[in-house]
Amino acid sequence: MNMLTKCLFPAAGYGTRFLPATKAMPKEMLPIVNKPLIQYGVEEAIEAGFHDIGFVSGRGKRAIEDHFDISYELEHQIAGTSSEFFLEDIRRVISGCSFSYTRQNEIKGLGHAILTGQNLIGDNSFAVVLADDFCVNSPGVLSQMTELYRQYECTIVAVEEVPEDQTRKYGIIEGEEFENGLFKISGMIEKPEPQDAPSDLAIIGRYILTPDIFSILRNNKTGKDGEIHITDAINVQSKKQMVLGYKFKGQRFDCGTTEGFVKATNYVFGSMTR
Ligand code: UTP
């Protein structure tokens, strides 16, 4: 069986909905209380058994590389003090994984970002995490999905019910529920208007993809807004082979928006002080 060890984090986007905060700082480094979004994502991946972490980054994203590296000066300064406590999680992350980086030179969409990451992935099935979709649950959403992958060995996307007037923000699946919360996908559409949406099930930022997705992406024409969409590529895949949609257990906060970000912050702070 194709072992899942590699997890890709597309993180090259401009984060325009968070300007001016994201003018000189990556959106993925915005902290939920005191931990950057991307660290939560990497911790979720580690919990699911991934140890090869790949980032698709871009200009202005150096802070991500620095975050997942040892800061000798800082380590020296705080050695033996109570502040060391705050570095425990990130030290564990750094020592438990390998990190690799590639750059997306032009911001041409999530599909293009994933295709750019092919050199970090090779010919393996792999996971994709969009760190701005902040998910909380135990076990994490990616652990739930790797469990399913072991059973079905196919592309799996995490889905969530969204209100009808929100379909135009997401990729929406068409499919048949064959087990509780598990859908066999027959098609998907990127950002449909409510009247064109085949369901109310939206794809969120957790994917397990089989490696044939790369050749589909390479041959994909640009879609809506002139971008290369992963939704269009998975749609092609779903016509040829089994692709699953999984209604995950847990809660998702859309931290690409200020509202979702504030809700996530309140949630995490609340659970820390309870
Ligand atoms: P978003 O759609 O949230 O775009 O991308 P964005 O640029 O981050 O934010 P806005 O819309 O301008 O506010 C979802 C994820 O895909 C990555 C982003 O970094 C984010 O993690 N992405 C998107 C890329 O890596 N490259 C792209 O070309 C597009």
In short:
The protein is an alpha/beta fold.
Description:
This protein has 274 residues and is of the alpha/beta class. The chain has one domain: Alpha-Beta Complex (Spore Coat Polysaccharide Biosynthesis Protein SpsA, Chain A). It is 33% helix and 26% strand. The chain contains ten helices and 13 strands. It has helices spanning 37-47, 62-67, 72-78, 88-96, 110-116, 118-121, 141-152, 213-219, 230-240, 258-273; strands at 6-10, 31-32, 35-36, 52-57, 98-103, 126-129, 133-136, 155-161, 171-179, 182-190, 201-209, 243-247, 251-254. The longest helix is centred in the last third of the chain and has 16 residues, at 258-273. It is globular and about 60 Å long. The protein starts with 5 loop residues before the first strand and ends with a helix. The structure holds uridine 5'-triphosphate.
